[in-house]
Structures are given as C-alpha cells and as structure tokens.
Design brief:
This protein is α/β, with parallel strands linked by helices. It has 17 helices and 14 strands. It has 2 domains: 267 residues, Crotonobetainyl-coa:carnitine coa-transferase, domain 1 (Rossmann fold), CATH 3.40.50.10540; 79 residues, formyl-coa transferase, domain 3 (2-Layer Sandwich), CATH 3.30.1540. The longest helix has 24 residues. It starts with 8 loop residues before the first strand and ends in an 11-residue tail after the last strand.
Length: 409
C-alpha cells in the first residue's frame, strides 16, 4: 500500500526532540524528510546516549527513515544551495530561537520568494511573538512554566517532571497538525504560510482540565498523585505484588457495586458517604484506605482478571519491559526492529496511526551525517559528483564520507 504523504517533501532543520519528533511522524506517514544538518557534527542528538556500536539510540529512534544532507548555512554558497532546495520542497521545519532564520537570510519571506507554496513550520519555546519569545527553553522549563509540574506528584510534595518529555512531544504533535492543516489549506489557495508552534502554548492547551477548574471553582489545582479531581476511584492502588489502576467515577453505579463485591467490601455499597460518584470524590480520604487495604490482599494479575471479567476499566501499572513484551502491543506492531549496517538491529516504538487503505510506520534506519548529500544535490539541483566534491573540499557540504560523530566509541 502507498503512504498518504508520499508526495510531500520536507526540509528538516530541526534538532534534538520536538522538531525531529514532528518530522518523524510525517516521515512515518510517507513524507520524504531530508534532514539539513551542519557539518561536521550535525544534529547534537547524534551524541546523546545510550549507544549501540557507536550509534546514538536516541538519534536512531527519532530520525528513522529520514535522509540527511550536510550544508553550512552560514556560508553564502551553503545558503544558496539551501534556497535552491526550497524550490523543490513543500515544507521547511525548524526549531531555532525566533529570528535565527532571518539572520541567516533564510526566513519565511526569503523562502516564499523562492517558492510561494512552501510552508515554514517553526517550533520554539515561547513562539515567534510575545515578551518571552527570545528566551531559551527546553522541555522541563515549559512544563514548569505551563503549570504541568505544579499538578504532578503527591499532595504536599515537590513539583515533579513527568517521566516523558511532554513539552517536546506535545509541541511536535501540534506541529504535525499545523503542517497538515497548512498543506490542506494550500490545496485551495495555492499558497504556503508560516506555522508558529510555542512549546509553552502546547502545555497550556494540555492543561485544559486544570485551567477550567481554576476558572470555575476559583481554586488553584495542585498535585493529586494518581487521583482524578472529579472521579473516584480513578487512580492506582498497591496490590500484593505491584499496582493496579481503576477508572470509575463517572456515573457507573452498577460497576461501583461490582467493584465492592469483588473486593470483599459489600458493606460500603450502602454507606451514604460513598453512595454516589460525587460523594465518593468528596469523601475520598475516607474511601481510599478501605479500597487500598482490600487491593493489597491479592496480586495484580488476580485482580485484573476478576475485574475485567465484569467489565470494570482497569489495568496493571506496567514497567517498560512489560510494555514491550505485552502480547497486545506486539499484535499491534508497536515495537519494530530496525536494522542499520553499523548500529545493528534496535527495536523501537512504531507509529500508532493505522489506516485501512494506506500504509504507515517506520520506513528504515536513520541516516549517517550527509549520507544523501550527493544524491539529493544531483537529483534536485543537477550537481555532478565533481561539483559536490569541490563544495565538500571548501567545507560547505559534507557527504557520507565526511565526519560522522554518531560513530563514536
């Protein structure tokens, strides 16, 4: 089957995570993603561990299936080469500090002059406008400033950064939405446009429940552990050998009765403190110890089987090792082995997008620095191998034979 974005070519100036995660999603959906990296080192994530056979697993996972050209954009010749590539591109993606592309002479106006249909997708910490736009920011910074860390953790505890880089990942996903929206709009207008994604903005968006609660109740939300602010029991409980998550509290009174019966505490079904969902939430401090004591009497697997049998939403709290070995995850092809001639085979997480008439998923291994410089310049710009070699001799470009810091020991 063909992939839905096979006719889309992306010049990818992004590095580390937020931008490369966005272009990874688009690549998995079929787009030709050409990483434009600076010689001689390229994307800094090439040096981020852990490593396998000298290759960064971090870079390997996020940059699978992409191509790589290496161009010195600070040189006049390098900038001109890039602008010539823009004439053949649908999208340019970048995640530099706002204003960087303009200073290099390759900002949106310069790109649109060469190709009015090109879309520029920019990801930055605080966006292209606003009083914070020039401030540096990484994932943990926007999670903190966006309030995510203030509602994560145990009540009364220190702010906690969630285990995944949601500041970067959310920005990447919203960048994909922006790119696809701009491509769709271009079908009618024939014109490209600039897409502006602020990492901080994305954290405000995903804080929708907490922000709504603040305005409705006037109370500042805080950390609740695993508990939900409006539903009980909707949280994790320790078992005899691990933890299990229960997700009730939105009016499923029949399931509440079933849960109490299975836990061996039928007497609390008629307890007026717990007889409705809102009452259970108001009186969660009295309810939680009762449920916690019951759950500790048996293993996670035993509770999971019995609760599933009566349709109660629940699940074990899995480790990463348990996730990647789960039969359902395997059946959904969510872990895919990718083989590289130097790095070897590394299993990585696949795309979750499945379509009935189109293909999606990991297309292949990541590129070496400048691996596709010769082919891309020849195919798109008509340069000969001798011309590319001359550019490489001046340090303006690098090819597969150039330095590759991903091959470290």
């Amino acid at each position: 089957m063909s992939r839905p974005l096979e006719d889309v070519r992306i010049l990818d100036l992004t590095w580390v995570l937020a931008g490369p995660f966005a272009s990874m999603i688009l690549c998995d959906l079929g787009a030709e993603v050409i990483k434009v990296e600076r010689p001689p080192f390229g994307d800094i994530s090439r040096t981020t561990g852990p490593y396998q056979n000298g290759w960064s697993g971090y870079f390997f996972s996020i940059n699978r299936g992409k191509r790589s050209v290496a161009i010195d954009l600070q040189s006049a010749e390098g900038k001109e080469l890039f602008l010539r590539l823009v004439e053949h591109a649908d999208v340019v993606m970048e995640n530099f500090t706002p204003g960087t592309l303009d200073r290099l002479g390759i900002g949106y106006e310069a790109l649109a002059t060469r190709n009015p249909r090109v879309i520029l997708a920019s990801i930055s910490g605080y966006g292209q406008s606003g009083p914070y736009s020039q401030r540096p920011a990484l994932d943990i910074v926007v999670q903190a400033m966006g309030g995510v860390m203030s509602i994560t953790g145990e009540p009364g505890g220190n702010p906690i950064r969630p285990g995944a880089s949601y500041g970067d990942l959310a920005a990447g996903m919203f960048a994909v939405i922006g790119v696809l929206s701009a491509l769709h709009e271009r079908e009618g207008s024939g014109q490209g446009q600039a897409v502006d994604i602020s990492m901080l903005d994305t954290q405000v968006t995903v804080m929708e429940n907490a922000i709504m609660r603040y305005f409705v109740t006037g109370e500042v939300p805080g950390p609740l552990g695993t508990r939900h602010p409006s539903a009980t029991p909707f949280q994790a409980f320790p078992t005899a050998d691990g933890h299990i998550v229960i997700a009730l509290g939105f009016g499923e009174e029949n399931q509440w009765s079933l849960l109490c019966a299975i836990l061996g505490v039928p007497e609390i079904i008629e307890d007026e403190r717990f007889e409705t969902g809102p009452k259970r939430t108001r009186n969660h401090a009295q309810l939680e110890p009762i449920l916690a004591k019951a759950f500790q009497q048996r293993t996670t697997a035993e509770w999971y089987a019995d609760l599933l049998a009566v349709g109660i939403p629940c699940g074990p709290v899995n480790t990463v090792a348990e996730v990647v070995d789960d039969e359902h995850i395997r059946a959904r092809r969510m872990i895919q082995e990718v083989t590289h001639p130097v790095a070897g085979t590394i299993p990585i997480a696949n795309t979750p997008v499945r379509m009935s008439r189109s293909d999606s998923g990991i297309k292949g291994p990541p590129p070496s620095l400048g691996e596709d410089t010769l082919d891309v310049f020849g195919t798109l710009l008509g340069l000969t191998a001798e011309e590319v070699a001359a550019l490489e001799g001046k340090g303006i470009v690098a090819t597969r034979g150039g330095p590759d810091i991903s091959r470290i020991t």
